[in-house]
């Protein structure tokens, strides 16, 4: 009877193949203490990172190590590829999309050289964060081995 008051569940999908782990396990306090938002992290095994939601690319950092996508439903998701990867100044990253592009879940955004990241970055673990500005009350997390496009979070 009051279903119209119930919050709609929005799905966030894996931006790469890999193992989903708790955000608290990330060896970086900005992420593990959820200072930029809540979410999960993926230990990637594939070199292409995709859109985890449908929306508009609001930001791709100049070094291509991170990007954000905002849905039409007040949900913004950031994918931060690796730790301390900003220090690589773009080495090992190839931009496949641009800011302002409208994307659907699964569209390719960034290609990386995972071997180079393993060698030169602190870690390849990739936080997938629901930004603090998003309209979110609850996040159900799927900590599992996933393929790109599998559901990793259900947000309401």
Structure explained in plain terms:
By secondary structure, the protein is mainly beta. The chain is built from two helices and 14 strands, in the order E-E-H-E-E-E-E-E-E-E-E-H-E-E-E-E. An eight-stranded antiparallel β-sheet has the order 9-5-6-7-11-3-2-13, with no helix packed on it. The protein has a three-stranded antiparallel β-sheet with strand order 1-14-12, with no helix packed on it. The model has no long low-confidence stretch (mean pLDDT 94).
Describe this structure in a few short sentences.
The chain has 156 residues and is mainly β. It has helices spanning 29-32, 114-120; strands spanning 10-13, 18-22, 37-44, 48-50, 55-60, 66-70, 76-80, 93-95, 102-103, 108-112, 126-131, 139-141, 145-146, 151-155.
Order of helices and strands: EEHEEEEEEEEHEEEE
Strand order across the largest sheet: 9-5-6-7-11-3-2-13
How many strands, which pairing sense, and closed or not: the largest β-sheet? 8 strands, antiparallel
Assign a percent range to the helix content.
Answer: under 10%
Give the integer mean of the pLDDT values: 94
The count of DSSP E runs of length 2 or more, i.e. the number of strands, is 14
| Helix-strand makeup class | mainly beta
Strand content: 35-45%
Q: Give me the Rg, rounded.
A: 15 Å
Discrete helix count: 2
Give the terminus-to-terminus CA distance.
19 Å
Net shape: globular
Which residue ranges are poorly predicted, with pLDDT under 50 across at least 5 consecutive positions?
Answer: none
């Amino acid at each position: 009877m009051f279903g119209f008051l119930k919050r709609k569940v929005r799905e966030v999908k894996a931006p790469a193949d890999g193992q989903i782990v708790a955000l608290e396990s990330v060896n970086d306090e900005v992420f593990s203490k959820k200072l930029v938002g809540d979410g999960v992290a993926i230990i990637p095994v594939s070199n292409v990172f995709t859109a985890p939601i449908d929306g508009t690319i609001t930001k791709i950092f100049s070094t291509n190590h991170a990007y954000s996508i905002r849905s039409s439903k007040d949900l913004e998701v950031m994918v931060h590829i690796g730790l301390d990867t900003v220090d690589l100044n773009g080495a090992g990253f190839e931009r496949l999309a641009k800011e302002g592009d409208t994307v659907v879940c699964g569209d390719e955004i960034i290609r990386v050289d995972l071997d180079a990241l393993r060698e030169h970055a602190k870690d390849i673990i990739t936080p997938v964060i629901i930004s603090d500005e998003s309209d979110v009350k609850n996040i159900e997390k799927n900590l599992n081995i996933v393929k790109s496009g599998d559901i990793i979070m259900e947000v309401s």
